[in-house]
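Bug report (template v2)

What were you trying to do?
Predict the complex of my protein with iron/sulfur cluster.

What happened?
Run completed; filing so the output is reviewed.

Input:
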Amino acid sequence: MNARHARYPFFAAAREAVGQSDVALSELVTSDDPAVSRGLERVERALMAGTVESETPGEWTARDELLSYPVARILVSLIDAPAAVRKYAHAEAATAYDRFTEDFETSDDGLKSTGTTTVELDDFLTEFELTDDVRPEADAQAAATRRDDAYRVSLGSYLTLSDPDWGKRWRLVNREVADGEVRIIREELYELLREAVRRQVAEGLPFVVGDDAIAEALDAEVDSLRGLLADRKPVGRIDTVVPDLFPPCMKHLLERAGRGAELDHHSRFALTAFLTGIGMDTDEIVAVYRQSALDEEEIRYQTEYLRDEAGTQYAPPSCATMVAYGDCVNTDERCETITHPLAYYARALNDEGERGTNAAD
Ligand code: SF4
């Protein structure tokens, strides 16, 4: 088991490492093993925050991290709800996307370590049997004159991995297709790989957990996760939009989106979930991102994803998570009194209301 297995636990090599270890999952879950706590956190974060990244990464070893993956799969299977599988697979894929894009870019800079922590694009293509289906654009001169470096992907893989619901630009009529290959830019290749991860994670879920001792040992965890799923109703929905009263972190993210800065996945998730949480609809949120480099169709897709069919939604990340991701900035006195950006905003609205009432007295 190594750090790379821990970062990409869905890779065949990582699964083999677990299989070859002397760890019996039945013994693991019936003990107080940290991998079980981390597995629980993995699923909690998937359901509540759209990521499986830990809020306390320093607490876990590579072993805990790797073994938490099969534990999480057992938990998701025991929850036995389509929404749990969907959101879990999506969160694993979103987290992997953040990690591999970072790894690939590091590799591009020639700074990649020779250790086993990071992956290269070729590793991913091999893992998903895409080596023969994806190639860099042949005409280097033509590629150099275009906006981004580009790849050609076989039509079959393109149609398998892309979804027209991702937006107009993904529809085949809007693509350059030649000799059975579709031209895509690097960022789009990364999106296809994210989808490949999502499918791989979702495959086989939920499965029947045949061992009653495992199900029994995880009873409390499964109950609490089912509760989270049921509770995901409009968390802190406020239905009043006063940008001046937004918490400093959200003002900062809004300002960055407004000047067209690229927001990381977690920052975009935090801002979009916050705006959804205070009652803004999809059109209003799309308007917020208008100046950003993000594709409108993509924003619509993500915003709709944040609300599921029942109209429930993801809660935006807590202050602790915002701190962990470096998104908590410019804190003020009110920040000392709350633990969640939505609570900040609710308190600010309340204080403003009280000020208005006092002024009228
Ligand atoms: S403390 Fe919370 S509300 Fe305040 S800036 Fe940080 S994340 Fe935002």
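What did the reviewer find?
The mean pLDDT is 83. The beta strands are 134-136, 150-154, 177-178, 181-185.
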